[in-house]
């Protein structure tokens, strides 16, 4: 597992039923592109987050496949519909097989 | 000559400079790009200020006789001296220095006597550009500006104090720090410390002042000094803010901008509902507003040389009329405000001996303002070439820095006035001919791209030891040709390596002595400075 | 003016063949119309290593982002699920130099639409 990988998300605590909310996510990750060379001239192997998903109560909001051109500390912002109270699950998939996740509950106000 | 001096004495009086029949119900006072010039200075306006694409031949891209003709300004008149470059040294002897924040204070006080609740708006580039400003990390300017009681401010060079210092000062400011385009870089949200706008109740109307900081801060200046912040033009957000203040009952919308003039013109055409843009950054001084649709754009010069007064007639949620005067601050004509003089002297007192030390003398007029090298730039490049033993010198195309008249002594303060910054290291490095070409093309496009949103509002990088031809009408990659190493007369070889000295690198960890030491040593060695005419840049397509 | 920026490509990068290949793989060679997609990017990148972009294509099933001048032009593909309140997303991308960023949307009916934006990556410096 890559070290120092830390996901963070911003989700409102409450929403009206059926409301569209804005979600922002960040994960600390160096996103090594596989195109850089070290001081000896050897290619530094690619090591990136290659997929990110957001689901709400088991239903998909967004599913992103990522290439090395995504910046260090991948950031996403998108909009989700909140039909009922429940839980958002955010999942990041690392090239090295690691999977990181974060969960946020939301109430209906 | 004698006639000019006589005419000058007759025609110039404080009353006349301030004469203004109060109009409407709201007054705005605009100052911008003071660059820490507390005291009166000389400042020569540009000789070359090229407009590209739609801006070709349009204000403010008109200089000299064409500028005077456009505004009906007589040759040799006070306005000619204040607004154009011709006969600068002679006219400077007739009309004297300009600026000084104690004189600016007198003008502000006079406007406030007419209209006590006039809004004073500072367009930024205030806490940068002098010895004392550097030594006090901006505190001298903060102290003096606070005494003038501004109502709002926006920003550019201030951020080169580093975000910790900027945050510290802004948290204590007794007025609004505005920038709708100042964002938190991590979450892409409006930065908490800087508000997008502020409402003022004036003359029975609701005035919204929206701030627009310099959009390209992390590009033109070292982004590593303020990594928490992101800027950009952010048109959509500007429109959203205009709509928001209108919905909240704004009768008139004023944008306090540090976009630069051409960017403001384009923005005025894209964002609907702005009544007045108080423009800064490009240091243009225009005696009349430029109208884009219904938006009036006001340009108020730099270095404390001008104050704009803008009176508005606002009724029933609409601007019915506007009256504007660009007031030149003739320091020998406008009486200083003694309280502010004392305050300025207090800021300078600990440094006065150092400031006044005479380093040398000049036989030539030293100035820096124009798309290509000025004589100050040539002198700085010569200093870099000789002190750093380089083939080629590069100096940034900044628009600040007062002028020095032929025959004047050059003090340490004068050197700092054209070099002071928080990343002053004079580097010495090797570059290939190809890379030097890439740099000139890159900077050239930042200046001559036909789309203002791709411009940064600076001038062409100044070079020493290098000649070149530039066709300003061509696209990036094709503007620069005939690069020549002046000391041999040979063409620059793309694959050959040259020793290049420069300063103001935006890269972290740049090494070298501070440029003011380099320039000081050079002037000391020369004793008396004489700058030869520079014909090494051949400009085509102007 | 940037010293030590020698590793950056400054000239505008032309779209390379790999970018066309990536788009063709996404569209299966179908026609791509202009319109219906909005791609927002800065005119000048504050930092070529982290350029914010925002894409929106109402009604799209998925959106492909391509950096046409990068040696590896692929950037990301956004697939929108039933709970996406808008077929829109923002992210930050790496650009090797001045170039066009292209967004291609696959609409619900299987048709394709695109938008592009030129982002300038500059060594910077200077200023008023
Ligand atoms: Mn300025
Ligand atoms: Mn500026």
UniProtKB/TrEMBL annotation, chain A:
InterPro entries: Ig-like_fold, Ig_E-set, SoxZ, SoxZ_dom. Residues 10-103 form the Sulphur oxidation protein SoxZ domain. It comes from the Bacteria. Pfam families: SoxZ. NCBIfam families: SoxZ_true (TIGR04490). This is Thiosulfate oxidation carrier complex protein SoxZ.
């Amino acid at each position: 597992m890559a070290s120092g990988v830390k996901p963070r998300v911003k989700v409102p605590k409450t929403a009206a039923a059926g409301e569209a909310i804005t979600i922002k996510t960040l994960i600390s990750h160096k996103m090594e592109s596989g195109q850089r060379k070290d001081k000896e001239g050897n290619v530094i192997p690619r090591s990136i987050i290659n997929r990110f998903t957001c689901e709400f109560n088991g239903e998909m909001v967004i599913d992103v496949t990522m290439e090395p051109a995504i910046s260090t500390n991948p950031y996403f912002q998108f909009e989700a519909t909140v039909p009922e109270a429940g839980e958002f699950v955010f999942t990041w998939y690392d090239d090295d097989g690691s999977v990181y996740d974060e969960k946020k509950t939301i109430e209906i106000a | 000559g004698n006639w000019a001096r006589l005419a000058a004495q007759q025609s110039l009086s404080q009353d006349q400079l301030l004469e203004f029949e109060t109009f409407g119900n709201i007054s705005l006072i605009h100052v911008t790009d003071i660059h820490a010039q507390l005291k009166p200075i000389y400042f020569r306006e540009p000789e070359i200020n090229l407009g590209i694409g739609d801006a070709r031949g349009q204000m403010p891209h008109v200089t000299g006789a064409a500028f005077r003709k456009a505004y009906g300004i007589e040759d040799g008149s006070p306005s000619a001296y204040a607004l154009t470059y011709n006969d600068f040294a002679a006219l400077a002897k007739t009309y004297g220095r300009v600026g000084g924040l104690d004189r600016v204070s007198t003008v502000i006080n006079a406007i406030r006597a007419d209209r006590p609740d006039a809004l004073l708006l500072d367009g930024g580039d205030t806490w940068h550009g002098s010895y004392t400003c550097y030594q006090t990390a901006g505190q001298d300017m903060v102290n003096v500006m606070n005494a003038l009681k501004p109502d709002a401010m926006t920003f550019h060079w201030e951020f080169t104090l580093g975000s910790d210092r900027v945050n510290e000062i802004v948290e204590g400011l007794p007025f609004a720090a505005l920038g709708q385009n100042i964002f938190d870089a991590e979450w892409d949200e409006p930065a908490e410390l800087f508000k997008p706008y502020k409402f003022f109740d004036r003359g029975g109307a609701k005035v919204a002042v929206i701030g627009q900081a310099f959009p390209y801060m992390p590009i033109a200046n070292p982004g590593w000094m303020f990594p928490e912040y992101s800027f950009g033009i952010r048109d959509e957000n500007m429109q959203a803010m205009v709509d928001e203040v209108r919905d909240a009952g704004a009768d008139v919308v004023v944008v306090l901008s540090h976009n630069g003039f051409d960017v403001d013109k384009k923005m005025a055409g894209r964002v609907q509902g702005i009544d007045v843009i108080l423009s800064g950054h490009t240091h243009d001084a225009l005696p009349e507003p430029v109208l884009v649709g219904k938006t009036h754009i006001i340009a108020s010069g730099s270095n404390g040389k001008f104050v704009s007064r803008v009176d508005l007639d606002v009724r029933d949620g609409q601007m019915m009329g506007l009256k504007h005067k660009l007031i030149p601050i003739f320091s020998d004509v406008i009486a200083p405000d003694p309280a502010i003089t004392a305050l300025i002297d207090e800021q300078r007192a600990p440094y006065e001996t150092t400031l006044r030390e005479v380093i040398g003398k000049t036989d030539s007029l030293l100035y820096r303002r124009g798309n290509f090298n000025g004589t100050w730039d040539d002198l700085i490049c010569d200093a870099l070439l000789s002190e750093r033993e380089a083939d080629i010198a590069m100096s940034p195309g900044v628009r600040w820095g007062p002028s020095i008249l032929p025959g004047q002594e050059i003090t340490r303060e004068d050197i700092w006035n054209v070099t002071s910054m928080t990343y002053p290291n004079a580097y010495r490095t090797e570059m290939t001919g190809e890379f030097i070409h890439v740099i000139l093309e890159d900077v050239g496009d930042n200046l001559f791209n036909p789309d203002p949103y791709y411009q940064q509002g600076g001038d062409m990088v100044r070079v020493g030891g290098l000649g070149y031809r530039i066709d300003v009408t061509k696209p990036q990659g094709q503007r620069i040709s005939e690069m020549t190493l002046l000391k041999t007369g040979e063409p620059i070889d793309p694959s050959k390596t040259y020793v290049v000295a420069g300063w103001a690198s935006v890269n972290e960890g740049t090494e070298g002595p501070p440029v003011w030491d380099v320039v000081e040593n050079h002037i000391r060695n020369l004793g008396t400075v004489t700058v030869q005419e520079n014909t090494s840049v051949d400009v085509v397509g102007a | 003016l940037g010293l030590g920026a020698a590793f950056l490509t400054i000239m505008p990068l032309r779209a390379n063949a790999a970018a066309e290949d990536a788009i063709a793989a996404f569209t299966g060679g179908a026609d791509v119309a202009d319109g219906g997609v909005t791609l927002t990017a800065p005119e000048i990148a504050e930092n070529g290593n982290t350029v914010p972009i925002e894409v929106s294509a109402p009604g799209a099933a998925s959106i492909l982002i391509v950096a046409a001048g990068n040696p590896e032009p692929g950037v990301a593909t956004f697939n929108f699920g039933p709970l996406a309140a808008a077929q829109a997303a923002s992210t930050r991308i790496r650009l090797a130099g001045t170039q066009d960023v292209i967004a291609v949307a696959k609409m619900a009916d299987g048709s394709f639409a695109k938008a592009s934006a030129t982002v300038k990556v500059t060594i910077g410096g200077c200023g008023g």
